[in-house]
Write a structure and sequence with these properties.
single chain, alpha/beta
C-alpha cells in the first residue's frame, strides 16, 4: 500500500546481526534475547493523531537495507525517525543518507543522538537529534514543528535534562510491533514492555542514563493505568518494566505496583540492591514480580564505589536474600574491562553471583557510552581475552541455572 503523504516511519535500521539500539545504549545481545525498542513505541504514542505512523523494527524482522529502501520508496514518508548506535554508526548513517529525499525530515535517536559534537555538515541527511524520546515538544519536530526541548539541530541547542517532572506521552501502540519476534531469558513466549519513568536519578560513572545525562522524570500514573488496561486487552501476560531503575522513586513505584497487581501480570525489571526492603519486596511479589535484574557491577566493594555505585557488599547480599526468601529470583549484572582487569575478574564475578544465589549472571564488557565520561579501559588482546573468559564462565553458570529452572517449572506443572 502506497503512502498517504502524511506517513511518518519510525525505524530500527537493519544490520547483519542483532543489535539493541534503544534507550541510548548500543549492545550486541550476549544470548538469544531481544526486546522491543521502547524509543519507537514512545515516539509513536506522542505522534498519534499527527500522522499515519508505521513502526519498522528491521532487526526483528530481519529486513535488509535494500528492503527498507524499497519500503521507503513505496510509502514515501514525509519524515523518518531512526535509531543509530555507536556500534553500527557508519551503516546506520549511510542508510539515512540513502533514504533522504527533498522535503523529508530525518531525526535520529539512539546513543549517537547524545553526541555533543555531532557533525551535521558531514551527515547532512540528519535534521535533528532526539535526546529524550518522552519529550512531547522535541518529538513534535519529527512531525514538522519548530525545534524545542531536548532536541539538537544545527541551529537549536537542547534544553537541559529535566529532573523530577511528570510527563505524558499517550498510550504506546504495542500492536504495531509483532511481539512474537521478541524474547527474554528465563521467560517463554511473548512479553510486552512498559515504561513508568524515564532516565535515572543516580550518576554511575560508566552509565549514560543518569540525571546529568538524560535526566529523571515520572510518567503520569493515570496514563500508566490506562496502558495497563490496554495491555490486558491485548492479552498480555508478561510485562518487562523498561525503567532504568524501577523503584528509584519509591512512592511512584508503589503506585505503579498497586495499578498492576489486579491484572495478574508476570513482571520483571531493573532494580538497585540498596532500594530493596522487606516491605518493597512484598509489594513486588504481590504485584507479580518474578525476576529482579540487579546491577552488582563489580565483585569488589571499593572498586564499585569508585565507579559511583556506592553499595556495600552486605547490602547487596541482603537484597538478594530478601528477594529469594519472598520468592523472587534475582539476576546479577556485572561490568568488567576496565584498566587493570584480567581474566580472573570474570571468575570473581561468577564467584560472587554464586554466593548471592543469583538466578543468572550477566558479565558485560565496558564500552564508553556517549553522554558519560570515558574511563580507563582495556583494549586489544586483553579486552578480547577477558570477553572470551566472561562468555565461557557465563555459559557454564547460566547453563546449570537454566536446567535447574526448567526442572523446577516441570515439577510445578506436574503438581
Amino acid at each position: 500500500m502506497a503512502g498517504t503523504g502524511n506517513t511518518i516511519i519510525l525505524l530500527n535500521p537493519p544490520y547483519r546481526k542483532k543489535i539493541l539500539r534503544d534507550y541510548y545504549c548500543s549492545t550486541f545481545p550476549k544470548a538469544p534475547y531481544y526486546w522491543q525498542p521502547i524509543d519507537l513505541l514512545s515516539v509513536a504514542a506522542i505522534l498519534n493523531g499527527k500522522a499515519d505512523i508505521q513502526v519498522i523494527d528491521a532487526v526483528a524482522r530481519r529486513l535488509t537495507a535494500s528492503q527498507v529502501e524499497s519500503i521507503m520508496a513505496e510509502q514515501a514518508p514525509r519524515a523518518v525517525f531512526m535509531l543509530v548506535s555507536s556500534l553500527t554508526k557508519d551503516a546506520d548513517l549511510t542508510l539515512a543518507k540513502r533514504i533522504k529525499k527533498p522535503g523529508r525530515r530525518i531525526v535520529i535517536g539512539g546513543e549517537i543522538a547524545l553526541a555533543p559534537d555531532f557533525d551535521f555538515a558531514q551527515h547532512d541527511a540528519v535534521d535533528g537529534l532526539l535526546l529524550d524520546f518522552t519529550d512531547e515538544g522535541a518529538v513534535g519536530f519529527i512531525a514538522g514543528e519548530n525545534p524545542t526541548g531536548r532536541l539538537r539541530t544545527p541551529w537549536h541547542a537542547p534544553a537541559t535534562p529535566r529532573i523530577g517532572h511528570r510527563y505524558n506521552l499517550g498510550i504506546m501502540p504495542h500492536h504495531l510491533l509483532d511481539n512474537s519476534r521478541y524474547r527474554l531469558p528465563l521467560w517463554q513466549g511473548r512479553f510486552y514492555s512498559l515504561l513508568t519513568d524515564f532516565g535515572c536519578p543516580f550518576n554511575c560513572r560508566f552509565c549514560n542514563s543518569g540525571r546529568q545525562s538524560i535526566g529523571f522524570k515520572l510518567r503520569d500514573l493515570a496514563e500508566v493505568a490506562e496502558e495497563a488496561r490496554q495491555l490486558k486487552r491485548l492479552g498480555a501476560k508478561k510485562i518487562f518494566i523498561k525503567d532504568m531503575t524501577f523503584g528509584a522513586d519509591r512512592s511512584h513505584a508503589e503506585s505503579v505496583l498497586s495499578i498492576l497487581a489486579p491484572y495478574g501480570f508476570r513482571l520483571r525489571g531493573y532494580l538497585r540492591a540498596d532500594l530493596i526492603t522487606q516491605k518493597f519486596a512484598g509489594l513486588l511479589k504481590a504485584a507479580g514480580f518474578e525476576l529482579a535484574q540487579i546491577g552488582v557491577e563489580r565483585p569488589l566493594e571499593d572498586v564499585r564505589r569508585g565507579l559511583g555505585k556506592n553499595i556495600p557488599d552486605a547490602v547487596i547480599a541482603d537484597a538478594f536474600q530478601i528477594l529469594r526468601r519472598i520468592g523472587i529470583d534475582a539476576g546479577a549484572h556485572f561490568i568488567v574491562g576496565f584498566e587493570g582487569d584480567g581474566t580472573g575478574t570474570a571468575g570473581a564475578c561468577i564467584k560472587q553471583a554464586r554466593a548471592l544465589g543469583a538466578a543468572y549472571c550477566s558479565i558485560n564488557i565496558y564500552q564508553h557510552r556517549l553522554g558519560a565520561s570515558a574511563l580507563p579501559a582495556l583494549s586489544g588482546w586483553g579486552k578480547h581475552a577477558l570477553s572470551l573468559c566472561a562468555g565461557f564462565n557465563m555459559a557454564r553458570y547460566n547453563g546449570r541455572r537454566q536446567i535447574s529452572c526448567l526442572w523446577k517449572n516441570m515439577r510445578a506443572g506436574n503438581r
